[in-house]
Amino acid sequence: MPKAVVWDVGHVLYDWDLRYLYAKLIADPAELDWFLNHVVTKPWHFQSDAGRPLATMIAELTGRFPQYADLIAAYWPRWLETIPAPLPDMLNLVADIDGRGVPQFAITNFGAEFWAMFRPTAPVFDVFKDIVVSGVEKLTKPDPAIFALALARFGLGPGDGVFIDDRADNVAASNAAGLVGHVFVDAADTRSWLEGIGLV
Q: Which domain covers residue 56, as residue numbers?
């Protein structure tokens, strides 16, 4: 039976969307949509998850869209505004698992510079044994290499841990690596699933 829980962070433990920040800065809905689809896009942001330096990313993007220089410049210093809150009941679930003495870990696609900003705001991670951050390792899910690295660091063998992520491709990769994967829907579904295997 699994003896540890491995979490994703964004869209599982915490809400995250670039729109939360830029809706404060761009009043026109049509311009906001265009900006998020063509300038500060999720694929562009995901370069930071893979380890690209933010200064390089921002300089390149400003060169392509000089008319949006001020909005692009806001991206780094105000990035925490893209994470408005934990998802409902998820931190309670982490606390309940911790109360049972079950070890918890995380594998997250997260820029190293953004993680350094975010981690001090999230004391929930104080109870985690270890966290593999893609931007630090320059490996991103669903690359099998990040799962191999994580399992070695966590000291988990095949079937020793469950992995909860909102993306089916990441869950499939975790299964292939020897974790027992579950696609995240919400806290109630996750709690019910974990109860079924005796982890909460």
A: 18-82
